[in-house]
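seq/struct pair 1
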Amino acid sequence: MRAWQVDRLGEPEDVMQFVDVPAPTLADGQLRVRVRAAAANFPDVLMCRGLYQVKPDLPFTPGVELCGEVLEVGPGAQGRVGDRVIGGSVLPHGAFADEAVVDAAAVLPAPDGLDDAQAGSFFIGYQTGWFGLHRRAHLQPGETLLVHAAAGGVGSAAVQLGKAAGARVIGVVGGPAKAQVARDLGADVVVDRHGEDFVEVVKRETGGRGADVVYDPVGGETYDRSTKCIAFEGRILVIGFAGGTIQTPPLGHALVKNYSVVGLHWGLYAKVMPQLIGECHAALTRMVDEGRIDPLVSERLPLDAVGDGVQRLADGTTTGRVVYDAGVGA
């Protein structure tokens, strides 16, 4: 079968190789799936660079989430051949391949209201957004939500989930094209950081009060600037560090302004409180059925173009989700 493999560490364009490999074999509790679609995520970039907390042995196939069709049920696993499922892949057999491996206990039914590419980009971004906004930040109707990288993968999901929760959403993007994407997603106010200071915009739009919740997958200077426009008793959600810098927050500032710095390691819920993953999926599926969320798939790529898509994600030039879609070019 065809697969992208990483056999050394570096930039995706340098280390991802498109090769033929044997089909994966299964351990206890696993399923082999035909990959119908798989979104590129920033952890894929970081794993290529060797900078992610998960460091699979070399060589490995990246692609941490997928929509797949069950081809084989391993020993001790529950599942049915032909089921359409979503979930995370089991490395080293990631989703940027014709076939991948998943844990049977961790997969979820793909929502009927989503096509394969949308379903293949639904698991990580929307689960992260739901846990961050609802369980960690307790976003309330009428509050102001500031979303950084609002036209990106996790940011676009946060915009839609914030609107669905009844919040007023301010989205920060880089460039006019991304600004239009954020508007189309439903952001009430869009800030192009290349031409405006989001701190000043947030203060103006909130009458000086600031944002109640900040959704920050960027980190670094973006986090530091967010502390200048956080409301009294606001919550800054630390989602990730796509900007490349892990900041050291000045806790004295949090003390004198009465705001909270809230971390989210969504993947840990699967180990500590796995029942919440299914509850979240049920809530998100209802939102799909009600037309309240609609995953933004900006590019549908054939498998042989995935390496370029992952590199463009690394370079910060993509909007929405870049997805391997097995139906493209088939």
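seq/struct pair 2
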Amino acid sequence: MKRKVFYSFHFENDVMRVQQIRQMGALEGDEPVSPNTWEQIKRTEKGVKDWIDQNLNGKSCLVVLIGSQTAERRWVQYEIKRAWELNKPVVGVYIHRLNCPRNGYSSKGSNPFDNFTFRRGGIVVKPLVYEPKASDAYGDIKENLATWIENAINLVNWK
């Protein structure tokens, strides 16, 4: 069974890296919003929040694809916070070692989960974060992404 996931990432810096992950086909991920649609959505804060909430609906997990500036992005932070509020598991995957056709490799960014304290039933939970092998980041992600998501789902009781 393919899991349905919501990919959270810094569009401007990492969209080409994220496309590589989408094309792996291991998961059913949300499709990126078109630039024209995004221009309409982002006109109001409510529009962006509504779009995020709609797209988180029915997803098994939030997958934060971590590039050099992902942790600082306002809407990534909102997606993480909102997914947790909606009882969605969250997992992080560093993508700086994927080669972007436009920008090459990137520097490793901060862990976006360090900006939050996650609690389940009074227990502090630290979301899992994976850093693919330097020697074959693409192959490592392709081979393990589905398992990493299952690990996030199994980390705490999501009932």
